[in-house]
TrEMBL record:
Keyword Translocase assigned: no
Family: Belongs to the CsoR family.
Keyword vocabulary terms for this entry: Copper
Protein name: DNA-binding transcriptional regulator, FrmR family
Entry-linked InterPro entries: Metal_Tscrpt_repr (IPR003735), Metal_Tscrpt_repr_sf (IPR038390)
CDD domains: CsoR-like_DUF156
Species assigned in the record: Salinactinospora qingdaonensis
Length: 95
């Protein structure tokens, strides 16, 4: 079984995702309760920021572990990991 870059911080990542999940449930309640539009938008921005922070943390760990390991070993796997990382960064920048 492969060990990925986030393995050492897996529990921290799960905790962050659970907090985001709670924020999304709170957002649903706000809509159900007819909360003020700006308050809903403010909460939406907070959720987006939390997810972006999670994604950047995961990307950092991927670069330090998976990509660095592949580059150290060289070959096609290294090129593939760098390409994957570049595409992931591109997706994050566009979102």
């Amino acid at each position: 079984m492969a060990t990925y870059g986030y393995h050492d911080n897996k529990q921290q990542h799960l905790n962050r995702l659970r907090r985001v999940e709670g924020q999304v449930r709170g957002l649903q309640r706000m809509v159900e309760d007819d909360a003020y539009c700006i308050d809903i938008l403010t909460q939406t921005a907070a959720i987006n920021k939390a997810l972006r922070s999670f994604a950047l943390s995961l990307l950092d760990e991927h670069l330090k572990h998976c990509v660095a390991h592949a580059v150290a070993n060289g070959g096609e796997d290294a090129e593939e990991k760098v390409r994957e990382a570049s595409e992931a960064i591109s997706r994050l920048v566009r979102s």
